[in-house]
Write a structure and sequence with these properties.
25% helix, single chain, four-stranded mixed beta sheet, alpha/beta, two-stranded parallel ribbon
């Protein structure tokens, strides 16, 4: 007996419309990014790149943080996703599974580090911390009350349940939980925290 077309499962019209809209947006994003790559390769005076050009890849544990526009210093991005190579000299390909496989000239040259490990596991956090230590200009234990002590400023953004691991990895550098509430641009159910070894106008220690 041959199955009729009526026996074949079909998606509701509104679901098909949503799927079509998703695929059209995905195609448009891909074209926009291809244009951006081409511009980056051929235009040395291109305007600053917005994060809107990069779609989150949840399979790679990418979740963009919602931030207010502000003036930012020049930063170097260590990232596995090679789409960010459009940032040229401000991009370094980074694999947390190989935490110390980086250009030797980067060793001990950073005095401000922001670390956002991709996974909520002790293995991932530990390897990311190895990179932070390797990049840091110094790794002198924090001395309570010594305001003149020069040490790198460290910020770690990760899950709330990683707090014991963060305290173990960065405790000697004075990293503590802050009261800064992290908001993700497209929503994320995991409770996140900002850990730092200094206070600022934007946060205080808990």
């Amino acid at each position: 007996m041959e199955a009729s077309d009526e026996d074949e499962p079909q998606l509701p019209a509104d679901t098909l419309a949503a799927l079509r809209e998703f695929n059209e947006e995905k195609h448009l994003r891909a074209k926009q990014f291809a244009d951006l790559q081409n511009q980056a390769e051929n235009d040395f005076t291109m305007k600053p790149i917005s994060m809107d050009a990069f779609v989150e890849d949840w399979n790679a544990s990418q979740f963009w943080v919602a931030i207010e526009p502000s003036q930012k210093p020049r930063v170097i991005l260590f990232e596995y996703d090679e789409r960010f190579a459009v940032f040229k000299q401000d991009y370094v390909h980074y694999d947390f599974q190989k935490p110390l496989e980086l250009q030797g000239e980067l060793n001990g040259t950073f005095d401000r580090l922001i670390c956002d490990p991709p996974f909520l596991s002790e293995d991932c956090q530990t390897k990311a911390a190895l990179t932070v230590k390797w990049l840091s200009r110094s790794w002198t234990p924090h001395i309570e009350g010594d305001e003149k002590q020069e040490r790198p400023k460290i910020i770690v953004c990760t899950g709330e349940r990683m707090q014991p691991v963060i305290e173990k990895l960065y405790g000697k550098m004075g990293v503590r939980t802050t009261n800064l509430e992290i908001q993700h641009a497209n929503g994320l159910s995991n409770e996140f925290r900002c850990y730092a070894n200094f206070e600022s106008d934007g946060w205080k220690w808990r």
